[in-house]
């Protein structure tokens, strides 16, 4: 699931296949000093700089025609501090490797998203999140950052050191510098019990507040063209450990959720009229199950079916209305949607451009199978989300610009002022940042 640049004539492509770029050169630094030298050299040559992670963003946030910095040598755990319960990792470390290394140390992050292919800096810089009543995004668990700024200097920041940079750089969009290392808060590894079960769409909406309040991590998937959802409730458990048996796990997570789903999407893409019937079958394919395991084995699942995605954070109080409007829109327009809509939540946080900055949020994610026209669906969905002052995920498809963001983010000006200070010559600018932050 990596994005390869060196394949055809030095073209870099993202995972979703909808963004490509041809950088002037690629650099793979093995240390923070080499990274700083690469940034300084780019400045001497008058080139822009972009660090790229695993290419899991659907926006062109990492695209550049200048210097592309690849992170694969900046990986691994630098240090574990058991007294302060933190771990410091190199920026290019894949989440998968971080989760497995932490488990070996008897440690875990408190919350995480549902895939682990991304690098830690790519995931945090774009605001990747899971679902949680009390615990926020991966970036909300950051306690310290090391940042290489435009002049090649190395800045360390935390709540105590350079706090104004820390407030913004945890979700920095790659606009403030290149993150070289991240310090996360961790806790002793714990067990989660997952309850996955189908539930009618109407009931999930009418009971949403309760389902949210009674569970540490609640999320659900609604299958368009059906009145069905699949709900997932993850809560801490005293044990014992009871993982999904291997064969069952393969059948449900690989065969049904990836293999059969891939074929169903191929059929749906070829013959869109079949999609509602396929959706009815898909929504019933996964039966209820309960299992108990360590966090990363419960929170994350493999995602092999390629798609493109739009996701918006709306105020949590608005999510039920927004979902009703989304369902009415799909029913009314005759759109054919083969991918479920994913709904999650996050508590308010204090990160300048976090989608949950200053407000309790709910996330609604719409997906389309790779290679299927998605514009009509995403445009109609976006109209609904923006009417609720929605904030799009920085790494997922949206059409918003700086003028819009200055209205939905009270601290937007704080971020752009900091960018003016740290990157006055716009060394880290690209077309995407020009659009979302202004020139």
Please outline what is shown here:
The protein is α+β, with helices and mostly antiparallel strands.
What is the topology?
Layout: E1 12-13, E2 20-21, E3 25-27, H1 32-44, E4 49-51, E5 67-69, E6 77-81, E7 86-90, H2 95-104, E8 107-108, H3 120-125, E9 142-148, E10 154-158, H4 163-169, E11 178-185, E12 187-188, E13 191-200, H5 201-206, H6 208-214, E14 217-222, E15 228-237, H7 246-270, H8 275-285, E16 289-293, H9 295-299, E17 307-315, H10 319-333, E18 341-346, E19 361-369, H11 375-387, E20 391-392, H12 402-408, H13 412-422, H14 431-437
Parallel strand pairs: 3-5, 4-5
Antiparallel strand pairs: 1-2, 6-7, 7-11, 8-12, 9-10, 9-11, 13-15, 13-16, 14-15, 14-18, 17-19, 17-20, 18-19
Helix pairs in contact: 7-8, 10-11
Structural commentary:
It is a single chain. This protein has 439 residues and is an alpha+beta fold. Helix content is 33%, strand content 24%. The protein has 14 helices and 20 strands. The strands form 5 sheets. An 8-stranded antiparallel sheet has the order 16-13-15-14-18-19-17-20, with helices on both faces. Strand 9 and strand 10 form a beta hairpin.
Instruction: Walk across the major sheet and give the strand order.
Output: 16-13-15-14-18-19-17-20
Q: Globular, elongated, flat, extended or rod-shaped: what is the shape?
A: globular
What is the beta-strand fraction?
A: 15-25%
Counted by DSSP, the helix tally is 14
Overall average pLDDT: 92
Rounded radius of gyration (Å)? 21 Å
Report low-confidence residues grouped into runs of 5 or more. 1-8
Number of strands: 20
For the largest beta-sheet, the strand count, sense and barrel status come to:
8 strands, antiparallel
Residues in helix, %: 25-40%
In whole angstroms, the N-to-C terminal distance is 33 Å
Structural class of the helices, strands and pairings? Answer: alpha+beta
Oligomer: single chain
